[in-house]
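This section describes the prediction task in plain terms. A model, or a person checking by hand, is given the sequence of a single protein chain and must write out its three-dimensional structure as a string of tokens. No templates, partner chains or ligands are provided. The sample shown here is typical of the held-out split.
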Amino acid sequence: MRHTLWLTILVASIGVTALVLGEAVPAFDGSTGKFTQQVAGNGVTVTATLLKDQPESTAIMLALDTYFVSLIRYDFEELAILRDDTGKTYPLTAVEQASPRKLRYRQAVLRFGKVNPDAKTIELIVKDVAGVKERTFRWSTTN
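The expected answer:
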């Protein structure tokens, strides 16, 4: 019981620290091969999940969630850019499975060009959501 309590406190403190600092918190679900990160700010939580093992593109599920801010005006085609550790940017090639424009929750799968195999990391930059200039999600490509 004591071990469980300390583990719960540790996990909660890591999450709170990450939210305060505005850094993404990565979590890996080995059963699905997904890497998920969240960044909250100004009442909107942005969640990005790198979908591994995409043969011809780089796919990321992006979700916006809020209780306070209308999300109707945000256009997935204009929200995000993908770049690697060398500074190369990859074009958005498709927006798939986009949820209907709703006030409080939206999600879609963003497809970008295939990342250079020599890249060590990639970053998804989500721009100008709820007054937050940039939210950065970073993944290692060697996982």
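For orientation: The helical segments are 2-21, 76-79.
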